[in-house]
Amino acid sequence: MGPWPIAIGIISGLITYLLVASGRWLWGKKIVPWYEDKVYRDVRLDGDWQTTFYGEDGGEFNETATVHQTANNVTGDIQLQGETAIKHYEFQGKIANLLLTAEYWLKGASSRDRGAFCVTVKENGKKLEGYLSWYSDSDDDIRFSEYVWHKK
Fold it and tell me: What's the rounded Cα separation, in Å, for the pair 77 and 63?
């Protein structure tokens, strides 16, 4: 007999494992999100947005946001024109019952510059209104502001 039956058993087990693992990954990461997106029948927020919020001193800040949506999962990028440079943020959240809840963070940095927002859909998806909260370095506190998005 020799070692061949054992080696064949081990190799076939490894191949089976690789097939099952790759099938599971394909099912969970590609097929299910694709299917959910195809049958999703709620509001779509994909596209470019102009946002407005008010800072700690009451000054108005405007951002541009790009939203990507797969079913009820929402991700995107936000650009804030600061005093000296443009800050790039990423966000991730979910939409349910016309309510988008998400968290955001400074892109590519391990910073405390992060927060969350919760907005509700208005005007058939052309406007979002709600609140934004963030950590304030200046006084080591959590701040919040009204947050309004307008579809471009």
Answer: 10
**In terms of domains, do 30 and 93 share one?**
no
CB 56 within 8 A of CB 138: yes
**Residue that has been written with the tokens 């099938």 in this structure:** 23
Same domain, 78 and 125: yes
Tokens 């195809």 appear where?
A: 38
Q: What is the pLDDT of residues 39-53, one digit of tens each?
A: 887 899 999 999 999
Same-domain pairing of 13 and 71:
no
Alpha carbons 78 and 94: distance in angstroms, whole number: 16
Tell whether pTM > 0.85. no
Beta pairing, strands 47-54 & 127-136: unpaired
Smallest CA-to-CA distance from 77 within 100, 106, 99 is with: 106
